[in-house]
Write a structure and sequence with these properties.
By secondary structure, this protein is α/β, with parallel strands linked by helices. About 45% of the residues lie in helices and about 10% in strands. The protein has a six-stranded mixed sheet with strand order 3-2-1-4-5-6. Helix 1 crosses helix 4. The model has no long low-confidence stretch (mean pLDDT about 95).
Length: about 290
């Protein structure tokens, strides 16, 4: 059974009202620190401490606080290990070690978050995406809306009528309509799309010769990756051969891109504090 065709009447996604007490904002910290590090020219204090990633992240944070006035806000961080790497040692193994000056700035970003009274949430062996997925599940159970502050395409599998993604650097909002526009599939199929096409940045193998357009067509016809393999005999040509030859790889990829929803966090961890003006003043003075 195929999936429904792309809807044509979905309105553009809008953010919750300013200061909405029923909206949770979750910041994907690593995503924004990394982007700020590479987007801004190098800056440093008079003591030689690198500061450009901290400045970029702090600018994003101030804009979010000023523009949205979130009542529930948390910062999702990467764990020290990864269950994905335990299952597949090559996962993200193609990435270079982070620059030393980036690590220095991450520590400063954590200080900025603490001074603003924004909770930092992490799970030892999970990635930030899994922490975010868990918070989305908990928020949905309580009837809260969620705004994921990120630009990570993997997180679009969490999008729905009550969940959107906000890319503050490009001032773009991704909801259900925008996910269809970007990928040609609905949010519920993003996981399988990513599993089939793979992801070179994370070293997720996918199925050779199956790119985004082919994966979207397969999912439109068969609904899910499980549906594709259940109806494999009806698929023609080279794509069928590749799917058959690399089924184990496809299923591994699906496991790697599936977000966990059982991180050890609670919604009580997301209530923003009042911040510490004295600590902020001292920190910003030190960072010049």
């Amino acid at each position: 059974m195929g999936s429904p065709a792309a809807p044509t009447d979905l309105p553009p996604t809008e953010l919750p009202p300013l200061g909405d007490p029923e909206a949770l904002y979750v910041i994907d910290v690593s995503s924004f620190v990394f982007r700020a590090y590479h987007a801004l020219p190098p800056l440093s204090s008079s003591r030689g401490e690198p500061t450009h990633a901290v400045r970029g992240f702090t600018s994003m944070l101030l804009k979010l606080l000023d523009d949205r006035d979130p009542q529930w806000l948390a910062a999702a961080l990467e764990g020290e290990g990864s269950f994905r790497r335990e299952r597949y040692p090559a996962y993200k193994a193609n990435r270079d070690a982070p620059p030393e000056d980036l690590g220095q700035q991450v520590a400063r970003v954590h200080q900025v978050l603490d001074a603003f009274g924004i909770p930092r949430l992490r799970h030892p062996s999970y990635e930030a995406d899994d922490v975010i997925a868990t918070l989305v599940r908990l928020a949905r159970d309580r009837g809260l809306k969620v705004v994921i502050v990120s630009a990570d395409k993997d997180l679009l599998q969490l999008v729905g009528p009550d969940v959107c993604m906000l890319d503050t650097m490009r001032d773009r909002i991704f909801g259900v309509a925008e996910t269809w526009e970007k990928f040609g599939v609905g949010p519920g199929q993003v996981r399988d799309l990513l599993a089939l096409m793979g992801d070179s940045s994370d070293n997720v193998p996918g199925v050779p010769s199956v790119g985004q357009k082919t994966a979207a067509k397969l999912l439109a016809a068969h609904g899910s990756m499980e549906g594709i393999y259940a109806e494999l005999d009806g698929i023609k040509g080279r794509v069928k051969t590749k799917l058959a030859e690399h089924r184990d790889q496809a299923e591994l990829s699906q496991a790697l891109v599936t977000l966990r929803e059982d991180a050890a966090v609670t919604l009580d961890d997301t209530k923003i504090g009042g911040g510490d003006p004295a600590a902020l003043r001292a920190l910003f003075t030190e960072l010049e």
